[in-house]
Design brief:
This protein has 11 helices and 5 strands, in the order αβαβααβααβαααβαα. By secondary structure, the protein is α/β, with parallel strands linked by helices. It has one domain: 3-Layer(aba) Sandwich (Rossmann fold). The protein is globular and about 70 Å long. The model has no long low-confidence stretch (mean pLDDT 95).
């Protein structure tokens, strides 16, 4: 059973409470225990997927994380993805495009960072920036943004047909919680480096960003590449929920340990005699 329900094409972002904990009845301690317990299972499944790829397997997983600043993407990377073997993970944080990237279509830089067979790829921000910030800030025309929704859908369908499991997550934080997290970054000297004055500028456009997210999710959710909105006011819940979504995806793939292409018993004899 799914931990969360994928968004529908007519969902309303305002209907989701950022402080809620859907599908989880426990508290912070319960979530942390579950996270630690499930970390071993996640690591095993990831290793199976990696091993499978060494013998011709082409399947892979792509986790797309989108959120307003301070919503907890970094914590997801540390506490969820950090529990698996790094050789089977590819993490990439997309920043403002370089001049070289601007010279190509908006998916060019995305394609260059896609996970290889047997890997879990994680996008910290993604191609969705080109329909989110571009819509809010007017970096592209409405016609261009409208066209990009369709281009993104076709791109993701292409990936799915090639063996990629796509999990798209919006970490949904409230404006009040974001203010508290930004305040903490100012109040604690060891966190000052995390503060970006530009975050306050983006806060001034909060409602516009919420609308841009709602439209993007409505237009690009699909059975093959569904969007999930994960309430993120409680960091412990968001980490638990994303881990469960990854587990669900990998358990659905059910990767198996490759069979040995040699005589195991004979090799035991040879090894003992060596």
């Amino acid at each position: 059973m799914s931990t969360l329900t994928p968004v529908s094409t007519d969902f309303e972002l305002a209907s989701i409470d950022p402080s809620s904990t859907p599908a989880f009845d426990g508290d912070k301690k319960d979530a942390e225990k579950a996270l630690a317990k499930n970390s071993e299972r996640l690591a095993e499944l990831q290793e199976r997927l990696f091993a499978e790829s060494k013998f011709g397997g082409e399947r892979r997983v792509l986790l797309v994380l989108q959120a307003m600043d301070t919503a907890g993407k970094g914590g997801i990377l540390r506490h969820v993805i950090g529990g698996v073997d790094p050789q089977g993970v590819h993490i990439y944080a997309f920043k403002a495009p370089t001049e070289e990237e601007k010279a190509h279509d908006f998916l060019w830089r995305i394609r260059r960072q896609l996970p290889q067979s047997g890997s879990i790829g994680v996008f910290d921000r993604s191609h969705y920036e080109d329909v989110l910030i571009h819509r809010v800030r007017g970096f592209s025309t409405p016609e261009t943004i409208e066209e990009r929704y369709g281009i993104i859908q076709k791109f993701e369908q292409e990936l799915v047909s090639q063996g990629t499991i796509i999990i798209k997550v919006m970490l949904h934080i409230s404006a009040e919680e974001q203010r508290e997290r930004l305040q903490e970054r100012l109040d604690r000297p060891e966190k000052n480096w995390k503060y970006n004055p530009g975050d306050v500028d983006e806060r001034m456009l909060w409602d516009e960003y919420q609308k841009a997210y709602e439209i993007a999710l409505q237009r690009t959710t699909s059975p093959g590449a569904p969007w999930y909105v994960v309430p993120a006011d409680h960091k412990w819940y968001a980490r638990w929920a994303v881990q469960k979504l990854l587990l669900q995806a990998l358990e659905g793939l059910d990767p198996q340990w490759p069979s040995a292409d040699y005589d195991v018993e004979s090799e035991k004899v040879r090894l003992a005699a060596s």
